[in-house]
Description:
30% of the residues lie in helices and 23% in strands. The chain has 236 residues and is an alpha/beta fold. The protein folds into two domains: 162 residues, no CATH class; 46 residues, no CATH class.
Amino acid sequence: MSPVETTEVAATDSATLDATELPADESVTQGIADAEPTVATPMEEDIDGRYNQGQLDCVSDKRAFDPRVHDEVYHIAVHAIRGFDFAYQEYNKTFSEYLTATAGQRFDPPIRFEMVPVNFQGLFDSVENKEVDFFFANPSIYSCVGVEQGAQPLATVVSRLAVRGHSYDLDVYGGVMFTRVDNDEINGIKDLRDKIIGGGAISEIMAAQLQFHEMNKAGLDYIMGTESISRMVWQF
């Protein structure tokens, strides 16, 4: 196993939660409805100033909902590596219920967050088609989407596992390399030379990239070393 970054939360270029705050009074509401520019009041300037300085009270200070820059619902794609049902069970409370009850209440009227479980290809498609505003995936997938679609990281998550009264921060990833039980030719990484190797996907951190790292340490280059590896077969 090799130490790597942990799971990333990222925002696509359609996310607009950092828009300018507006006071929720009648004149501004009318201006929003007519799509006319409004003039900032002293109260608004005070809130903006405290927001820029990181002094907003997350409980008492609220941001007026502006339909020109805000959405009533923000969608968060979650890479469902263990299936849609498991992803919903594991992450819906965080990305739907918790965010709606906390960040959503910062707006007047409140906004909502909805989790959208997606498979590997569905994550890329949903970002490209602007069907989601944020996504939750491992660093490997994030780096691909970030390069191709222009996503920006927001947070890094360190998972925690409780076992027999002890808690452990899961700050490393691990992958598996295996052969058939009746294969006596491959007993170590160096024995992969001149063999046909199957992998999950070149962008998968635990199904390919960690294994590539160990192979490179053993002198096997999976991209340039055509003399060391016969062929890679990808199974999506």
